[in-house]
Amino acid sequence: PTEEPCTKSAVIQLAFPISAWINNVAMMLLSIAGNCFAYSPRLRLLDVFLPENLVKNFKGPKLGIPGLREKLGVPTRPLSLHIIKPKMGMTPQQTADQVYQTALGGVDCAKDDEMTSDTYNNKFHERLPRVMEKVHKAKDKTGKEVVYFVSITDECSRILDRAHRAVELGANGLLVCYSAGLSALRMIADDPEINVPILWHPSHMIAAQPRIAWPVFAKLARLCGADLMLTPTMWSSIPMVSLEEALRTAQVKQAPLYHIKPIWPMPCAGVYPGLAEVIINEYGPDICIPAGGGMLGHPDGYTAGAQAWQQAIAAVMSDIPLPDAARKPENAALRRALEHWGYMTRPKTPWLRVAPKFHPKPMKFE
Question: Given 85, 125, 144, 164, which residue is catalytic?
């Protein structure tokens, strides 16, 4: 309880008998996040503890961090991911061409925008084969695997069929949004015929964030089979949660959880290569960094945008300050990125987003 005389506040812990929902995630949610919220507008669910005799009924992710590292042949460093925006009017071929250019630049993964499954001019079954054709073409040139997370979010009666169809068409990754439900995620992840990583997109969860802390969602998504999940970060353009909650979210994705594999945090939202030092040093190397405008907006194009991220990641992993790395002739893409977006060391003030004097500034190189 708080010691503030004018405030009634406390952190409380409740216990529930699990026999009623030991293998039923939908009923679990009703218990831990149900009618209790009707009784106080200030109530917030901070965490959930899952005992072993409950967790043993869940399989969790098929790949997680170790499986995706093996699939991509990337043993230690962070991954980079290209966020596609096909909802902006792009055709399947334009989408594929964009992925091809970032693949040539060394990107590790690409994902559909979460708002896209099917649009009037870009159906998933037309987009997927074209993108995978370009992914294979790029691999012939670079020797590097790229995972494309195709969006399959749909009604519960259709989403499993859509997942099977995607795998039949050659998908090597699936994207599912929270709005489809944790049970849908679990159904797909548990299916023995679906052996590709699943990226869990939490945009629909943002509405609940004032009442349910992000680590709760992260723990349940991991339990139900997500291999990767977007993660808030204080240093993005949308700092939705506190620094402590953001880091705790990443921690619960990777901390030991019986037999459940650790999964990839994805610190995201308006990030650019000049943030690589801050993000990697804070979250560690077992992260996947997604970039949309912070890759595609590179002044020298999509391929250079992907190169800039790979160069930034390599510099951080070698403990070389980004400005020093950017001065090397082979890192021209990184240099141009720092000139365009700027460079930020970890702020020593909580006023980063409030005071313009603390905002990162574009750099100039001789």
Answer: 85
pTM score, whole prediction: 0.91
Q: Give catalytic status of residue 85 as yes or no.
A: yes
Can you say whether residue 9 is alpha, beta or left, with left for phi > 0 and alpha for psi between -120 and 50 degrees?
A: beta
Q: Which residues pair with 212 in a beta bridge?
A: 45
Q: What is the DSSP letter of 133?
A: H
**Nearest to residue 306, comparing CAs of 314, 316, 296?**
296
Residue 88 backbone dihedrals phi, psi, to 5 degrees: -80, 15
> Which residues make beta-bridge pairs with 200?
176, 229
- Nearest Cα residue to 342 out of 360, 322, 324, 319: 360
The Cα-based distances of 142 to 47, 135, 136, 137, 302 in angstroms read: 43, 10, 10, 9, 16
Indicate which residue of 59, 87, 164, 204 is catalytic: 204
Q: Which tens digits make up the pLDDT trace of 301-343?
A: 999 999 999 999 999 999 999 999 999 999 999 999 999 999 9
User: In whole angstroms, how far apart are CA 291 and each of 42, 80, 139?
Assistant: 34, 8, 21
